[in-house]
């Protein structure tokens, strides 16, 4: 039997603090070489601009597979603001059994946010109380929700050129977290004095500058996934201790990292480590919170597998979803 989980059932199965821990285990497995995840594959329609993206993964030991398929179009959005009109994750094992098919659009946001929060647990001060979010769509909302589970946030400042999106962010995040949200007139105003800065935009060009950030700020760069796009300026990337998810994905997709490299500001080895190496203890403890740090996310397949496993197990415990004979 295959467990089918729609959007509501999928989201009901999320336990955010537990998810952060599980994503940590997945990223550690990736850094130990226990996961196989080919780079994202994209197929475009030159006629309509439609896109199909696929991201598979295999986790050894547990002998699990996952595959995420995402369909999108540049002119269309879901009611919640997401650009991915349809995104699903298929979850199965190496015995040939398909265990579950689940709504994946918002899972993609939450697994990214969970890895961002994982990095922040190692790279930001435990007392960090001010989060700034640039980009108030569903990714920014998920980021604020998950960050609120790992740091004692008392203030969230945001900016988005779409005032309606910012207002929706404020209503949603205040309801879900109880933390007051202040909508700011600019990116610079939003990040002023923030200890945590999360970038969740669709911008092609930098949305922050080094001179706006405090000396010990931790930046999560989540939105740009192409070589020619970035959210972080070159000065910030050059000055910061940079942490990543995967070397291969970084070199294939991360304009934030690659553009300053092409400008001759640093070499390919500028980054400190994969976040999985923090989780395994391969990178010894340092007081990263005393300096500027950047976590550059591209999104990787192991995160989809781990969140699918998380949701599937929780669904079985809670007795939700529809079991069908495939």
Index terms:
ornithine cyclodeaminase, domain 1; eight-stranded mixed β-sheet; 24% strand; 37% helix; 326 residues; Rossmann fold; eight-stranded parallel β-sheet; 2 domains; alpha/beta
Q: What does it look like?
A:
It is a single chain. The chain is of the alpha/beta class and 326 residues long. The termini are close together. Helix 5 links the parallel strand 9 and strand 10 (181-183). It has helices at residues 7-12, 16-31, 105-123, 138-150, 163-177, 187-191, 234-239, 247-253, 255-262, 275-280, 301-318, and strands at 2-5, 35-36, 41-44, 51-59, 64-72, 84-93, 98-103, 130-134, 155-159, 181-183, 196-199, 218-221, 241-244, 273-274, 293-296, 322-324. Strands 1, 2, 3, 4, 5, 6, 7 and 16 form an 8-stranded mixed sheet that branches. Strands 10-9-8-11-12-15-13-14 form an 8-stranded parallel sheet. It has 2 domains: 2-107 and 302-324, ornithine cyclodeaminase, domain 1 (2-Layer Sandwich), CATH 3.30.1780; 112-299, Rossmann fold. The model has no long low-confidence stretch (mean pLDDT 94). 37% of the residues lie in helices and 24% in strands. The chain has 11 helices and 16 strands. The protein is globular and about 60 Å long.
Question: What's the number of structural domains?
Answer: 2
The number of E-state strands comes to 16
Fraction of residues in helix: 25-40%
What is the CATH class of the largest domain?
A: Alpha Beta
Overall form: globular
Backbone structural class: alpha/beta
Low-confidence stretches: none
Whole-angstrom Rg: 19 Å
Distance between the termini: 7 Å
* Topology-level CATH name of the largest domain: Rossmann fold
Mean pLDDT: 94
Question: How would you spell out the order of helices and strands?
Answer: EHHEEEEEEHEHEHEHEEHEHHEHEHE
Percent of residues in beta strands?
15-25%
Helix segment tally: 11
Query: What is the CATH homologous superfamily assignment of the largest domain?
Result: NAD(P)-binding Rossmann-like Domain
**What kind of sheet is the major sheet?**
8 strands, mixed
Going by CATH, the architecture of the largest domain would be 3-Layer(aba) Sandwich
């Amino acid at each position: 039997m295959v467990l089918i989980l729609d959007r509501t059932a999928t989201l009901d199965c999320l336990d955010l603090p537990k998810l952060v821990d599980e994503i940590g285990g997945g990223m550690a497995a990736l850094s130990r070489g226990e996961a196989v995840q080919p780079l994202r594959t994209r197929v475009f329609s030159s006629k309509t601009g439609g896109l199909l993206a696929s991201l598979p993964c295999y986790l050894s030991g547990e002998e699990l597979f996952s595959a995420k398929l995402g369909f999108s179009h540049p002119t269309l959005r879901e009611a919640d603001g997401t650009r991915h009109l349809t995104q699903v994750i298929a979850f199965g094992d190496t015995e040939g059994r398909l265990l579950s098919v689940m709504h994946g659009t918002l899972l993609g946001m939450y697994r990214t946010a969970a890895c961002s929060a994982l990095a922040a647990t190692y790279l930001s001060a435990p007392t960090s109380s001010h989060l700034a979010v640039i980009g108030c769509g569903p990714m920014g909302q998920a980021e604020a929700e998950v960050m609120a589970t790992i740091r004692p946030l008392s203030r969230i400042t945001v900016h988005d050129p779409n005032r309606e999106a910012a207002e929706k962010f404020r209503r949603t995040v205040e309801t879900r977290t109880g933390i007051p949200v202040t909508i700011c007139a600019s990116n610079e105003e939003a990040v002023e004095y923030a200890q945590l800065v999360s970038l969740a935009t669709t911008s092609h060009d930098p949305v922050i500058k080094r001179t706006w950030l405090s000396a010990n700020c931790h930046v999560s760069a989540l939105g740009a996934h192409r070589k020619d796009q970035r959210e972080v300026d070159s000065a910030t990337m050059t000055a910061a201790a940079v942490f990543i998810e995967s070397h291969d994905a970084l070199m294939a997709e991360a304009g934030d990292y690659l553009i300053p490299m092409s400008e001759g500001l640093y070499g390919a080895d500028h980054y400190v480590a994969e976040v999985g190496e923090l989780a395994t203890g391969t990178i010894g403890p340092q007081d990263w919170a005393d300096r500027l740090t950047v976590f550059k996310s591209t999104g990787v397949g192991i995160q989809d597998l781990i969140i699918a496993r998380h949701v599937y197990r929780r669904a079985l415990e809670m007795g939700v979803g529809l079991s069908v004979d495939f």
